[in-house]
Amino acid sequence: MISKKEVEHIASLAGIALSEEEKELFTKQFNEILSYFHKIDELDLEEVEPTYHVVELSNVFREDEVTEPLPLELAILNAPKKKDGYIKAPKII
What we know:
By secondary structure, the protein is mainly alpha-helical. Helices cover about 40% and strands about 5% of the residues. It has one domain: Histone, subunit A, CATH 1.10.20. The chain is built from 3 helices and 2 strands, in the order αααββ. The chain has a two-stranded antiparallel ribbon. β1 and β2 form a beta hairpin. α1 (about 5-15) crosses α2. The mean pLDDT is about 90.
């Protein structure tokens, strides 16, 4: 069970302020979510094989295929900003 004090701690870690109503609401919601996990814990899974992925696919790759590059005019056609035939992007420093 999650206490109101723990909800306050989580909120402080997230840097958000909660009203008393929100604290009560989130305490209730967290506990409802955790109750679902407790239901899963109660399941008998002895005969279920462990799995890491629901679809048993292994290394499904496609072969590389050499194709002609997209013409520059088409590549920059929908770019929001262009300069001297190139896509202009904001500086990132």
